[in-house]
Amino acid sequence: MNVINTVKLREDVTALSNANPAGLPLAAFQPVADGRGGLATNTPLSISIFGAGYVGAVSAACLANDGHQVIAVDPSSEKVDAINAGVAPLLEPGLSERIETAVKGGRLRATHHADEAVQNSAVSFVCVGTPSRPNGSLDIGYCVKVAHEIGLAIRRKRAWHSVVFRSTILPGTMDTHIIPALEASSGLKAGVDFGVAYYPEFLRESTAIKDHYNSEVVVFGKRDDETIELLRKVVAGLPAEPTVLTIAEAEAIKYTNNCWHALKVSFANEIGAICKAASIDSHVVMSVLCADTRLNISPAYLRPGFAFGGSCLPKDVRALRHFGREHDVETPLLDATLAVNAYQIERAVQWVASKPGRTVALMGLSFKPQTDDLRESPYVTLAERLIGKGYTVQIHDPDLNNRLEDTVLSKMPHLRDRLVADLDAACEGADMIIVCKPVVSKQWVAEKAQGLPLLDLERVERKFSAGGKYVGFSW
Questions:
Q1: Is 45 within 8 Å of 234 (Cβ atoms)?
Q2: pLDDT of residue 26
Q3: Residues belonging to the active site
Q4: What pLDDT shows up at residue 22?
Q5: Considering only CA atoms, which of 207, 379, 205, 391 is closest in space to residue 307?
Q6: How far, CA to CA in Å, does 390 sit from each of 4, 127, 190, 363, 382?
Q7: Which helix (H) or strand (E) holds 221?
Q8: Is the pLDDT of residue 13 over 50?
């Protein structure tokens, strides 16, 4: 195996990025202004793209029209021949024109040979398919195969090379399958001898080119600085500033996006069925819903945490489900919404049961901060579940200090008698702590978690993450 000087490799990155691997005229590397959305770039790169499906073909065409030197790699002779002939291998608005322009300009060609592509590029994008198996699991066979091929090519290369996966893969796949395959085939260390990153794509069929040039979010999953710098050059000129995360976080974002989109479609369809049964125009209803960008189409309510509660959400979901049944309309999504909410409470109960000791200090009881409303509070349900299982529950909630004698709490003596106004007294003799609301300080949480198991349902400090005796409920 070649002995690789890793310091020299890093020095070679810039030179390789501006290389002319195909012996093409220098004009092939000049910025493009084709009037069809191409981005001019003053830092052209040599890029190989594995997979000439929707993501690969669109990426190849757009990057070549941005001025980069692109080699597409695919086992399909039809796709390779089509691209080399300047023809799009699939139907996508605007794709044929861009491929034709790029091929004629000498910035795009296609091949079957992985080694040829890697040797003649600074970075490889992997855009191969990840189909479903019959049982619903993800088939990453193509990804692993390509990783082995690229790894073998890197083994024979005496310059730094970056491997960037864009295929849709589940969180952890890069670390458990892709990177090990690259390292095994190359005999080198990822992040040390060659670069690795995950760069999720957010392209939709029929609008893929528009999506490429108008992405509102660009995400890079990082292993090494060199690859991230190359990717910054690739996206230079796009409207979104790249967000750099861990590889696992970047993998998770792609699935979160797609499941969120699927959830929105199903929600709109379920509301549509209910409205139709009641002779209501659902498009009018949904258009008004979407007009509210403060709560409805916004980050509001999209913060992972505990169950919802209060005087509105639980009863209104139940009421609309019942309304649907009265009109012979199934509401599986609304049914699941309540089931998921109940499961959040069960998860907290299970955490308590997994710990030694029978005394629990509960920080918070009303359904959200700065309110004394106990109606359908998930923390009331949690406290009652624990009391029913024989736990001693000591509750502190300063939002209720002025209501200890009111009529609501008078009907809940099993909880009223467990309320403790003094914070430290509420924790005396406790075996574990559950923080339900931000009624305690960040410093207090950090200090208490040094001595007692502490479950944080609120994430009182954004920087806190699970570790030691501190347990973040959904982080």
A1: yes
A2: 28
A3: 312
A4: 35
A5: 379
A6: 64, 55, 52, 19, 13
A7: strand 219-222
A8: no
Other Cβ atoms less than 10 A from the Cβ of 40: the count is 12
pLDDT digits 0-9 by tens, 74-85: 999 999 999 999
CB 125 within 8 A of CB 138: no
pLDDT digits (tens, 9 = 90+) for 308-355: 999 999 999 999 999 999 999 999 999 999 999 999 999 999 999 999
Strand partners, 98: none
**Contacts of residue 12, Cβ cutoff 8 Å, sequence gap at least 6:** 159, 160
Percent of the chain that is helix, strand, coil (3-state, to 5): 45, 15, 45
How buried is residue 166: exposed, middle or buried, by Cβ count under 10 Å (0-12/13-18/19+)?
buried
Contact between residue 10 and residue 57 where contact means Cβ atoms under 8 Å apart: no
Q: What span, in angstroms and rounded, lies between the C-alpha atoms of 216 and 296?
A: 19
Tell me the three state secondary structure of residue 465: coil
- Segment 284-311 shows an average pLDDT of 96
Q: 360 and 384 in contact (C-beta within 8 Å)?
A: no
Give the dihedral sign, CA 21/26/29/34.
Answer: negative
Strands 195-198, 219-222: parallel, antiparallel or unpaired by DSSP? Answer: antiparallel
Mean model confidence pLDDT for the chain: 91
The predicted model scores a pTM of 0.85
- What is the pLDDT at residue 407? 60
> In residues, how long is the chain?
475
Would you state the structure tokens that stand for residue 66, as one six-digit string? 């941005």
Res 1 pLDDT > 70: no
Q: Are 351 and 455 in contact (CB under 8 A)?
A: yes
For residue 199, which of 411, 301, 315, 55 has the smallest C-alpha distance? Answer: 55
pLDDT at 405: 57
Amino acid identity of residue 41, one-letter, is T
Pairing of strands 195-198, 108-111: unpaired
